[in-house]
Amino acid sequence: MTSPPRGDKGGSMKAVVFDRYDGPLSVREAPMPGVGPGEALIRVRACGLCGTDLKIHSGKIPGVPLPHIPGHEIAGEVAEIGPGVRGIKPGDRVAVHFYVTCGRCRYCLSRRDSLCENLAGQLGFHRNGGLAEFVAVPAVNALPLGERVSFPQGAILADAVATPYQALRRIARLQPGEVVIVVGAGGLGLHAVQIAKALGARVLAADLIESHLEKAAELGAEILLRPERKDPLETIRQATGGRGADVVIDLAGQPETLERDLEWLCPAGKLLVVGYSPNRAFSVSSLSMVLRGLQIIGCRASTRQDLAEVIAWVEEKKIVPVVEEVLPLEKVAEAYERLRAGKVNGRIVLEP
After folding, report:
1. Which domains does the chain have, with CATH numbers?
2. pTM for this one?
3. I need a labelling partner for 325 at 20 to 30 A (CA). Which of 205, 282, 342, 347 fits?
């Protein structure tokens, strides 16, 4: 089991641990993490479950050590701080960003820290995560969380909300009146719908699961696309005056969706690739790319700045984090199964 630089603190805590890929998910005693210089010990109050957690559990994400404590969507209270920590104190409510970055490379210095050249891993991926009573994190990753945001809402902000936020606002620079198609109206997609609407865009949503589309409509999607029933291309053309969408944000990341996405774009349109499928490539026509001036842009997670901004958006009620249900940590296996079956609208959050 991985641990912070100074090793275990002594004593034990309750945590979700798996010893092999696709192995049983059980709650058991695990060593309490130690707190090194520049770190904070967080008493976890809530931890969200993400589709990536399924990939981590199945061994599809490289570099995940075993045994492992998963969970990268974390909110809680500061329990202890290590030497040299400033700006936070025990008792503070925080949301945690999960990328452990150097803070010195050109990407970190330009607020693109998810592309850090010296990335030291991600909480819940290469380091132990938040499906536990406590987690040790770099103190700079613990951002203030106001009382108006609940811990379950705060937990999912760093990924489910800040990831589509970075893609649409910072990378695509979405403008009022533009047309956005959200492909995959799940945990990230439902927040992408809200973010695009808040930025003044028209939103269409595509998904295979009817309940996901119904929730997307409730949150502001104007037109719902059901690709398994009917080719959506004609519907998209009618909705856009024959142009196509300005932006397609793909949260599914499957070759089948990505290749289709390009057909839905207008000339000079942008395909934002947020979801991914390990070891599966998709085909692109270079001729179409050139003649239509299309852009394909990879969007890697979010940054600490994005997290700070979405916390403010939630406090201002510009968007509402979609938490379908909060369950005790002991129901982790049930939660994983529901997520795997696509029976979650938004996020399931677990509480230690």
Report:
1. 8-156+321-351 (3.90.180.10), 161-298 (3.40.50.720)
2. 0.94
3. 205
